[in-house]
Amino acid sequence: MRSTRPMTITLPEAMARAVKARVASGAYASDSEVIREGLRALGAQEQAVERWLASEGVARFDAHVAAPDATLSADDAHGRLRAHMAKRLNKDMA
Q: With 80 as the cut, is the pLDDT of residue 24 above it?
């Protein structure tokens, strides 16, 4: 029984060039190998997100439910981030 299946895919021009460039560089033997590696990386990223959600994500949600006043609103968080970045930018330019 065959363990691979031929497929035809359509990519945006920039992605197609990126695939071809990786093959041309010698980093990969074929277009298929580039796509397989990309899918493996996507799978690893999805697993990492799932692990985070199952551990820290749940813990942070539970902490918020237990003490909702202790968490920042999105507007407050953005404001603090903007202030922090402005301070760093001013420090770097001085």
A: yes
Q: List pLDDT tens digits, range 62-74.
A: 998 999 888 888 9
Report the candidate in 10, 45, 55 with the shortest Cα–Cα distance to residue 31: 10
Comparing CA positions, the residue from 1, 4, 2 lying closest to residue 36 is 4
Burial class (CB in 10 A: 0-12, 13-18, 19+), 19: buried
User: DSSP assignment, residue 26?
Assistant: T
Q: Which DSSP symbol is given to 69?
A: G
- Nearest CA among 54, 56, 6, 53 for reference residue 30: 6
In this predicted structure, what is the pLDDT of residue 86? 93
Q: Where are the domains of the chain?
A: 13-93
Q: Per the structure block, which two tokens stand in for 13?
A: 């021009």
CA dihedral 68, 69, 73, 77 (to 10 degrees): -110
